[in-house]
Amino acid sequence: MTYVIEGSTGPWEIVVGLEVHCQVVSNSKLFSGASTTFGNEANSNVSLVDAAMPGMLPVINEECVRQAVKTGLGLKAKINKESVFSRKNYFYADLPQGYQISQFDKPIVGKGTIILDMPDGSTKSVGIERLHLEQDAGKSMHDQDPKYSHIDLNRSGVALMEIVSDPDIRSPEEAGAYLTKLRAIVRYLGTCDGNMNEGSMRCDANVSVRRPGEPFGTRCEIKNVNSIRFVMQAIEIEAKRQVEVIEGGGEIIQQTRLFDQRLGETRAMRSKEMAHDYRYFPDPDLLPLVFDDAFVSEIEKTLPELPDEKKARFMRENGLSAYDAGVLVAEKEKADYYEVVAKGRDGKLAANWVITNLFGALNKAEVGIADSPVSAENLGKLIDLISNDTISGRIAKDVFEIMIETGGDPEKIVEEKGLKQITDTGAIESAIDEVIAANPDKVQEIRDGKEKMLGWFVGQVMKGTGGKANPGMVNKLLRDKILG
Amino acid sequence: MTDLTKLTLAEARDGLAKGDYTSVELTEAHLKSMDAHRNLNAYITETPEKAIEMAKASDAKRAKGEAGKMEGLPIAVKDLFCTEGVQTTAASHILEGFKPEYESTVTSKLFDNGAVMLGKANLDEFAMGSSNTSSYYGNVINPWKDKTGKDLVPGGSSGGSAAAVAANMALAATGTDTGGSIRQPASYCGIVGMKPTYGRCSRWGIVAFASSLDQAGPMTKTVRDAAIMLGSMAGHDAKDSTSAPMAVPDFEAALSGDIRGMKIGIPKEYRVDGMPEEISKLWDEGVAMLRDAGAEVVDVTLPHTKYALGTYYIVAPAEASSNLARYDGLRYGQRVMDEGDSLDDMYMKSRAAGFGKEVQRRIMIGTYVLSAGYYDAYYNKALKVRRRIYEDFATAFGTVDAILAPTAPSAAFAIGENEGDPVKMYLNDVFTVPASLAGLPGLSLPTGLSSEGLPLGLQLIGKPFDEETVLRVGGVLESAANFTAKPAGQEG
User: Fold this and answer.
1) Is B296 helix (H, G, I), strand (E, B) or coil?
2) Residue A276 touches partner B, C-beta closer than 8 Å
3) What are φ and ψ of residue B245, in 5° steps?
4) Cβ–Cβ under 8 Å, residues A252 and A207
5) How do residues B470-485 score in pLDDT, each as one tens digit?
6) What ipTM was predicted for this assembly?
7) pLDDT tier for residue B1 given thresholds of 50, 70 and 90
8) CA pair distance B78, B193, nearest whole angstrom
9) Quick check: A275 contacting B, CB < 8 Å?
């Protein structure tokens, strides 16, 4: 399935590379002891270093280094045991130092790979070019005062990991899958909370178009898109714009653009917002960042099972399809939930219930797995009730509805509502007798050879017992009574 | 009673210990001297009340038997060190009125050891200069006079510190040295100045000029005083990533007076064309003194010396251009802004009004050498040459224990003499810059007088973190030179 844009002169392929800024999960900032807590009062998490007071010096936070290495390991990437912090110089009100401490030519993490899980169950490998550590800037607020902009430095100096992909992405869907997977990986690792709406994960997209097989075209960078859906939209809209420009005889100018989700367009940033000459040079306040193999292997020991490994295990041990396994591992919480449900039970049955019924209900209610009204333990119990013939699959669906509504225990629901399957032969026989007595003509039809009519009788008996009769027994007893 | 301002730091320390006088008396004597020499403009901010308060506290501490290594000794602090609650200007208009809420690590250590602060010494703006003529708060005047009697520069950038010590307005002073800012003014003012190894003293709380070069050090009347004071300034600081995690030796104990068998290197490349005869002679005399003391003097070569000044004037401005970006008028210091101005307008107006000409010049040089298209030709090449300069020294120190050279190519010159020619002004640093680039310890001490009767200094350069050898050789040279001349009015 190749994604192309059909232009007036033929098909165009799109080429996308993503730069994702992930806020590092750490208690204090990259180079200062100030807190990183989100949502505190403006300018309350600011040390002398963050405010760039005269004579203040940065000191690397080892925890942030550990988190970056951990992320690098999670991306199966090369860990650079020596890296260098450089200064990226530019003036802005929310950048107190007048430079951002970042990594330029010697990042802490080099080449790696991300495996995308596509909606059709296929996979695709996208290269990671690098991961580097850098400081976040503060926040400018232009709506606090009629004349002045206000500055909040709480975020100033917070550690970010900038993760840069190779230009391997070929469709908006792949971009979406890339971000979903990257977010899953950092969340599994606990190195970034991945919340794009809070800004702890932000994405810049480099987009170009080319005719299939031709060299890369000139790219434009779309800055700071804040949801996966918007990234996908922005890429599509930008690629179409580029095709129109080229087919209209124009030329793509390399530039930075903003995505306006309301107008559904990208537009060039004002020249003042565009790339400056950043005059990168090694930060003389910091020594090169050097660590040894032991440091890396200590971190390696703390790595959790990551989505790809988990997916493989679910397929291998529980017999799940690639698609189902992929859906379950997309979020660690979902996978954990599934594992509780599947434990000691039929893995495939558990996957069906979790994916089809639970995820379906949660999506409808727009609720995340963490807020699921049905606990994994209770969903497990429900499956047990089916397996031990306490209720039928059909009744189970009703019980599940009630569980979604009330969060109740399925055993209690079945008990209270009297939904237990009727397996008492006498009770089922009397129900059958009633139906037979009321429909002698239909009985005759069956006896004359229209055996299909038996299904109608089963339905009537189930109806008569409120669906609680064991369908297998109903079938057998009906057959015995009518066909003898 | 003896004039307490004429004591050395060591003498005052011992006198206080014996109870000959109190810290309050010592401090009051220096405050009086500051009044008498205010014309030299050595201080930007005098802190007499704080000084007396600190002296009283110090006397009380001593009475309880808790005297520190610098207990009760009044000193000047270069106004580049942030001092809690006391205006810290870096001699710049842009920081006028700035009172830090924190104390620099070096001054904290000195005060913890009992030192008393007399005030904040004048300097070149942001420590950029070799003449102390770039201070927003006015020129510092050298206490020494040549035969014409006109006002001379004290050297720079630690010119206020040097003048204060030379004119007995402080027992000692802190300085900082980026390319010679301790050693050159020490030479011009006839005192001792030591730049320790880069990393020996914490830079935390010192207004940064060029981070990879800046280093704090003592400016004193004698080599022993420098050893005492350095011991109280040095030490690892977790707040400065470039500070060395090393123990602080007993520097005073290194002054054994015995340099027999030591090898002293004479770098032939320092014998530059046009070196004044009296500087050559001074150097030769220094060689003879060390030889007489039993050292073996050998020639060494530092082949990349001729590139040092050019390298320095790329690296230091490059770092400065970035370090000074934080002075933007936003959070502290001077802001110049008119109704309706944009952020960029505010930056431009504040920085144009706040920075003097020399600072602006260096910011522009630094910005240029880091620019796309010029980075490799200038900054990157300068880093490579810097590495070579370091290797030159490392090779030389494979055979010698210390290197002897002049501190500066001349004696103090008249105020205004080199003003129109920045390159000529930069040449004052030609002998001090190589050790700065290599991060090595350097000590300047006065060993003779020029034909004009002005002090001239020689410089000893040592191995990394081997201040002890530098001080030991310096002590021997000091005894042999027996430099007793004083500026007019300060004769013992």
Assistant:
1) strand
2) no
3) -75, 70
4) no
5) 999 999 999 999 999 9
6) 0.96
7) low
8) 13
9) no
Residue partners of B264: CB distance under 8 A and separation at least 6? B287, B290, B295, B296, B297, B298, B400, B401, B402, B403, B404, B473
> Chain A residue with minimal CA distance to B340?
A147
- Tens-place pLDDT, residues A361-373: 999 999 999 999 9
Judge contact between A185 and A306, C-beta under 8 A.
yes
Are A66 and A75 a contacting pair, CB within 8 Å?
Answer: no
Question: Is A51 within 8 Å of chain B by CB?
Answer: yes
Handedness of CA A352, A358, A361, A366 (dihedral sign): negative
3-class DSSP assignment, residue B404: strand
Task: Quote the tokens at residue B54.
Answer: 């600190």
Q: Taking CA A388 as the corner, what is the angle to CA A386 and CA A389, rounded to the nearest 5 degrees? A: 65
Domain ranges of chain B: 1-492
Helix (H, G, I), strand (E, B) or coil at A412: helix
CB pair distance less than 8 Å for B328 and A99: no
Chain A residues within 8 A of B208 when measuring between CB atoms: 54-55, 285
DSSP state of B303: G
Q: What is the mean pLDDT of residues A31-49?
A: 93
The residue type at A406: T
Which residues of chain B have a CB within 8 Å of the CB of A279? 321-322, 367, 370-372, 375
Look up B157 and say whether it is catalytic. yes
Q: Is A96 on the interface with B (CB under 8 A)?
A: yes
Residue type at B224 in one-letter notation: R
Question: Can you tell me the distance from the alpha carbon of B372 to that of A277, in angstroms, rounded to the nearest whole number?
Answer: 6
**Please, which residues have CB within 8 angstroms of residue A412's CB and are 6 or more apart in sequence?**
none
User: Domain B1-492 is of which CATH architecture?
Assistant: Alpha-Beta Complex (3.90)
| Confidence tier at A474 by pLDDT (50, 70, 90) | confident
Residues 6+ apart with CB under 8 A from B471: B194, B223, B226, B227, B251, B254, B255, B443
How many residues are listed for chain A in this entry?
484
Tokens of A392: 């039928």
Structurally, at CATH architecture level, domain A425-483 sits in Orthogonal Bundle (1.10)
Q: Residue A197, class by beta-carbon neighbours within 10 Å (0-12 exposed, 13-18 middle, 19+ buried)?
A: exposed
Strand partners, A305: none
Residue indicated by tokens 């070579």: B388
CA distance B461 to B218: 15
What is the reported pLDDT for B491? 74
Of A90, A122, A83, which is closest to residue A104 (Cα–Cα)?
A83
B181 in catalytic set: yes
pTM: 0.91
User: What's the start-to-end Cα distance of chain A, in Å?
Assistant: 57
Distances (CA, A) of B471 to A239, A387, B431: 70, 88, 19
Q: Which amino acid is residue B388, in one-letter code?
A: R
**Contacts of A123 by beta carbon, 8 Å cutoff, 6+ apart:** A115, A116, A117, A322
Please state, in angstroms and as integers, the Cα–Cα distance from residue B292 to each residue in A253, B170, B286, B399, B477, following that order. 75, 34, 10, 20, 10
Query: Which residue has tokens 């003042």?
Result: A272
Q: Which of B460, B443, B436 is nearest to B287 (CA)?
A: B460
The residue type found at A378 is N
Q: Determine contact, residues B269/B405, Cβ cutoff 8 Å.
A: no
Q: Give dist(CA B489, CA A348) in Å, integer.
A: 100
